[in-house]
Amino acid sequence: MSNVTYLKFFDTSEFDKMNELHKRGWKIKPAGEIDGDPLCAVYINEGDEREIHTLHCPECLDVEIDVYHLDWSVLTCPNCGTDVDLEDWITADQMAEVFKELEEEDEPA
Fold first, then answer.
1. Checking phi first, is residue 47 left (phi over 0); if not, alpha (psi -120 to 50) or beta?
2. Helix, strand or coil for residue 29?
3. Would you call 41 helix, strand, or coil by DSSP?
């Protein structure tokens, strides 16, 4: 059984999208030019992509970290230096829910 390789092409205007894929394990190689603009091939083998979990420190809320698995017991916030138990970190979904609730409170009745 062979691995299927997924291949996408991006120009430099799509740097943010390429960077996000790179964080998840995709490889990036130069693939030529289109109208003088560099073109990149972005590829990955089936099953090699990593899931990213975005967490927010409950102490300072200022920092957002990306981790590839949730097998940690304690993570240290790179901003405030606090050692925080994994279950106390706030997920991106929880942050979105809090902001949604705050927006609903601010709406006029």
1. left
2. strand
3. strand
- pLDDT tens string for the chain (109 positions)? 457 688 888 888 888 888 888 888 888 898 998 888 889 999 888 888 888 888 999 988 777 888 888 888 999 998 999 999 999 999 888 888 888 887 887 776 5
Q: Which residues pair with 39 in a beta bridge?
A: 11
Residue 98 is encoded by which pair of tokens? 């809090």
Residues 75 and 55: beta-carbon distance below 8 Å: yes
60 within 8 A of 68, measured Cβ to Cβ: no
Q: Are 40 and 57 in contact (CB under 8 A)?
A: no
